[in-house]
Amino acid sequence: MALVTSKEMFKKAYEGQYAVGAFNVNNMEIIQGIVEAAKEENAPLILQVSAGARKYAKPAYLKKLVEAAIEDTGLDVVLHLDHGENFEICKQCIDDGFTSVMIDGSKYSFEENIALTKKVVEYAHERGVVVEAELGRLAGIEDNVNVSEKDAIYTDPNQAVEFVERTGVDSLAIAIGTSHGAYKFKGEPKLDFERLEKITKLLPNFPLVLHGASTVIPEFVEACNKYGGNIPGAKGVPEDMLRRASKLGICKINIDTDLRLAMTAAIRKYLTENPEVFDPRKYLGEGRKAIKEMVRHKIKNVLGCSNKK
Ligand SMILES: O=C(CO)COP(=O)(O)O
Ligand SMILES: O=C[C@H](O)COP(=O)(O)O
Ligand SMILES: [Zn+2]
Ligand SMILES: [Zn+2]
Known about the structure:
Layout: H1 7-16, E1 20-24, H2 28-41, E2 45-49, H3 51-57, H4 59-73, E3 77-84, H5 87-95, E4 100-103, H6 110-126, E5 130-135, H7 147-153, H8 157-167, E6 171-174, H9 193-202, E7 208-210, H10 218-226, H11 239-246, E8 250-255, H12 257-273, H13 280-303
Parallel strand pairs: 1-2, 1-8, 2-3, 3-4, 4-5, 5-6, 6-7, 7-8
Helix pairs in contact: 2-4, 2-13, 3-4, 5-6, 6-8, 8-9, 10-12, 12-13
The structure holds 1,3-dihydroxyacetonephosphate, glyceraldehyde-3-phosphate (G3H) and zinc ion (2 copies).
C-alpha cells in the first residue's frame, strides 16, 4: 500500500488490453466513494487533481485525504496532476510527492509543446516521477467536423511519434474526438478510431490517454433534470467506444463529469425526497454512495480492470 507511479500499471493494462480509470478528486466524499469501489473490485487506480481542485480544497487537504485513503484501504494509488499548465505547477506537485504529472502544452506550437514537456520530463524523471503530455486539441469538437478540420485539431500520428521520441514522455493524451464536460456531441457520438489505430501502430507498447471520456450516464442526467436541475442535451462517449479504445493502446481513461453527475443526481434526489433533512452527512453520504456504485460499474463493465491490481 503506497503511492506508486503508473509505469507497471500501464504495462499490464497495455498487455491485458484494458484501461485504468483516472478519476478527478475534489473532496473527501469523492475520494472515499472512488477508493471504496476500487478496493471492492481489486482494481488499479489513478486519483487526479486539477489546478481547480487544488484551488478549491487546498493542496495539503487533498494530499492528506489521498494518504488517508491509502492507509484506510491498503490500495496502491497513483497521485496525478491533471492538466498542469506550466512547469511551476508540475514542479510543485512533484516536490509535494505526486507520483505522476501531466504537462498540458497542447495549446502551444508543436516545438513549444516539446520544449515545455521536455523540461518537465527532465525534472520529473530525476525524481522518479512519470509524465503525461498532450498533443492535439480536445475542446469544442463536434461530430460534424470535416476532414481538414480534423487534421488541424486531432492528433497527427507522425507528430505523435516525433513528440514521444524527442520528449521522453511516459504517456500521451491524444485528440480523436472526445472533449471535456457534459456536452460532447451534438449529433451521433463519433470517435476517429482509424487515427487511434494509426497512432498505436506507430507507437507500439506506448500508453495512450483518453481525456474527456465520461459517458454522461443518461440515468444521472435524467435524475438531475427530474429533481430541479437543468442540463438538457447532455451527451458523452458511449461505453462500447471506451471498451474499444482500451483495446487499442488507451491505458488511462479520464473521468470527472460522470462523478459530478452521479453526486449531483443523488443529492438532488435525496434533498427533494427528504425536505426536512439538513444534515450534510445525509446528503453527502448519498452522493458518496452514488459515486461508489458508478465507479464500480466503470471498473467492472467498461474499463475491464477488476482484479488487475
Ligand atoms: O479529461 C478529463 C479530466 O482531465 C475529464 O473528462 P470528462 O469531462 O469527460 O469527465
Ligand atoms: O479536464 C478537466 C477536469 O474535468 C477538471 O476540471 P476542473 O478544472 O473544473 O477541476
Ligand atoms: Zn488539454
Ligand atoms: Zn482532461
